[in-house]
Design goal:
The chain is mainly alpha-helical. It folds into three domains: 1-62, no CATH class; 66-157; 166-331, hpI Integrase, Chain A, CATH 1.10.443. It contains 14 helices and eight strands. The chain has helices spanning 44-61, 66-76, 83-97, 109-117, 121-141, 166-174, 179-191, 195-199, 238-250, 268-278, 284-297, 302-309, 314-321, 330-334, and strands spanning 7-14, 20-30, 33-38, 206-207, 212-214, 232-234, 258-259, 262-263. Strands 1-2-3 form a three-stranded antiparallel beta sheet, covered by helices on one side. A three-stranded antiparallel beta sheet has the order 4-5-6, with no helix packed on it. It has a two-stranded antiparallel ribbon with strand order 7-8. The longest helix has 21 residues, at 121-141. Residues 220-227 have low confidence and may be disordered. One of its GO terms (molecular function) is DNA binding. Residues 159-334 form the Tyr recombinase domain. One of its GO terms (biological process) is DNA recombination. InterPro entries: DNA_brk_join_enz, Integrase-like_cat_sf, Integrase_catalytic, Tyrosine_recombinase_XerCD.
Length: 338
């Protein structure tokens, strides 16, 4: 794998009877020169696993700092699906943590890092989670450090869900005078889509026959960030389809949301104007929250809301929106009758 401090090669040897055989070996170079050690197998997958194990033990045997431990831990992952995310987290965390020795970490180290990092809590949680996982690996799995340092990952606070009631939405919609702003608002509440996805929506993803809208990317370069999925959703409101038909008739670009013959890069000013006219403060993301809240209030199952919003993990959906479901914790409450 690119970026590893070693390579896997082949090592050929000769038996006493003169026959030759080979096995995979691990190869690396340091200040003392080039090195190679047989991995004892001619199976590639087994060799890769043995190389990770060998390198992890070699690195931890001389590890003195958090940086050396995290590096060994990352090298041991062997291409797991979240390795890239962890390596990205280490790039951010490395300046603070790399030079620390494990005995220097106390209960205040984590909070100090959070204060200095000054980033979103979820971002810092990922970074501290990496540090904790690496130290736990060195302590429990490899038994290379005697005591697990007190690195705590802060709990995720309850999310604030700013949303509109249906009455507020109707008032806000009346304040949307520009056709492209009104169309955006109708699509946002009907699909629960993120703003950037609606602004990038081309007409080819509007399925007039099935009355579906696909928010999934169609180009190789249009890729989504981790845990930020997109859905193909049905649109049930005929008013939305009437607005779409009118916009399609007048369209001058390939994109659904346009104005003056040009694609729209931001809808912020339109929302500010509509908020001022209507007296209802609203942002594009509030409409996504509103769509989810309305579905929850209508007793829609959480996994269905998750699929509609493009959430890859329904637990995230439940954590944010379950409280709006009329039956939330109702069965638990009934169990307490006496």
């Amino acid at each position: 794998m690119p970026g590893l401090p070693y390579r896997i090669g082949r090592l050929t040897r000769t038996r006493e009877d003169g026959t030759r055989y080979w096995s995979f070996c691990i190869k690396w170079a340091d200040e003392r020169g080039a090195h190679r050690v047989s991995l004892g197998t001619d199976d590639r997958a087994a060799a890769e696993a043995a190389a990770r194990e060998f390198w992890g033990k070699r690195t931890l045997a001389t590890a003195e700092t958090v940086g050396e431990i995290v590096t060994a831990y990352l090298d041991s992952l062997g291409g797991l699906k979240d390795e890239k995310r962890k390596r990205e987290a280490w790039v951010a965390a490395k300046p603070f943590w790399a030079g620390l020795r494990t005995h220097q970490i106390d209960a205040e180290t984590g909070p100090t890092y959070i204060e200095q990092r000054q980033r979103a809590l979820n971002t810092v949680r990922n970074e501290l989670g990496l540090i904790r996982s690496a130290l736990a690996w060195a302590h429990k799995d490899k038994q290379m450090i005697p005591v697990m340092p007190p690195v705590k990952v802060p709990a995720m606070p309850d999310s604030e869900v700013e949303h509109l009631t249906k009455a507020q939405f109707r008032r806000f919609l009346k304040g949307c005078k520009a056709p492209h702003v009104r169309l955006f608002v109708l699509l946002a509440i009907a699909t629960g889509a993120r703003s950037k996805h609606l602004l990038a929506l081309p007409w080819v993803r509007v399925d007039w026959q099935r009355k579906h809208i696909s928010l999934k990317p169609t180009r190789d370069g249009d890729k989504e960030a981790p845990n930020k999925g997109r859905a193909t959703v049905p649109v049930d409101d005929e008013r939305v389809w009437e607005a779409l038909k009118e916009a399609r008739h007048m369209a001058q670009t390939l994109f659904v949301i346009e104005s003056g013959g040009e694609r729209i890069a931001s809808i912020r000013k339109g929302f500010e104007a509509a908020s001022e006219r209507s007296g209802v403060k609203c942002t594009p993301h509030m409409l996504r929250h509103s769509a989810a809240v309305w579905m929850a209030e209508a007793r829609t199952p959480m996994d269905e809301i998750a699929a509609f919003l493009g959430h890859k993990n329904p637990l995230i959906t439940a954590r944010v929106y379950a409280r709006f479901h009329p039956d939330y914790l109702r069965r638990a409450a009934k169990a307490l009758r006496w």
